[in-house]
């Protein structure tokens, strides 16, 4: 079961750095960290996201746009304006690449203070880097896969970050429950988010976008936030004062 454990580590490792670094730090800046720690986190994000590495700059800007234009034609990813999840994710990919390559004009409000490490992103997001990770995943499966069905998990390793994205950006706007009635389709996917480490409380997050804790009710435990609290306690990061709108 080494392969299954490997996929679980990639799933939650990649998910944590997407939620902690790309989402809560790059996009919403709910905490601060030193420049040295920021660079370490860039590298850790690359290690755990591997072939599906996402730039903090591209992700941060695109997510800010998602909040500003939720469920409108300007939303980078909305089920309301795409025929299916594949069409939505293809559009998301194109917008993400346009942002990173600076092929489109971006309003300053979306770029302000978004972390960027151009030289590292050029390498980590390159075709060479992605192919290197894919080769590593394949070799890992060659050595450790013990049953044919385990090979069905290989595409998950290749596409981990997009899979995380489609769960929240597609299913999180179609299925689930709401704590707050809003002018968008955001939903909470789970009453206890065991799968997405807090990202599944999407309706809560759209209501309180500047809060580091995506859980609101007692059973809505945000695992990423608990780790953030520990890192804050040890001084590795510093949480900003929470400003929650009523």
Shape: globular
If strands are numbered along the chain, what order do they take across the biggest sheet?
Answer: 1-2
Instruction: Give the termini separation.
Output: 47 Å
Q: Note the total helix count.
A: 11
Largest sheet features:
2 strands, antiparallel
- What is the number of beta strands? 2
Architecture blueprint of SSEs:
Layout: H1 2-27, E1 31-32, H2 35-49, H3 56-68, H4 85-100, H5 108-111, H6 118-124, H7 127-144, H8 154-158, H9 160-169, H10 202-207, H11 223-233, E2 238-239
Brief rundown of the structure:
The protein is built from 11 helices and 2 strands; from the N terminus they run H-E-H-H-H-H-H-H-H-H-H-H-E. It is mainly alpha-helical and 246 residues long. The protein starts with a helix and ends in a 7-residue tail after the last strand.
Overview of this structure, please?
This protein starts with a helix and ends in a 7-residue tail after the last strand. The longest helix is centred in the N-terminal third of the chain and has 26 residues, at 2-27. Strands 1-2 form a two-stranded antiparallel sheet. By secondary structure, the protein is mainly alpha-helical. The model has no long low-confidence stretch (mean pLDDT 96). The chain contains eleven helices and two strands. 53% of the residues lie in helices and 2% in strands. The radius of gyration is 18 Å and the shape is globular. The protein has helices at 2-27, 35-49, 56-68, 85-100, 108-111, 118-124, 127-144, 154-158, 160-169, 202-207, 223-233; strands spanning 31-32, 238-239. Helix 1 packs antiparallel against helix 2 and helix 1 packs across helix 3.
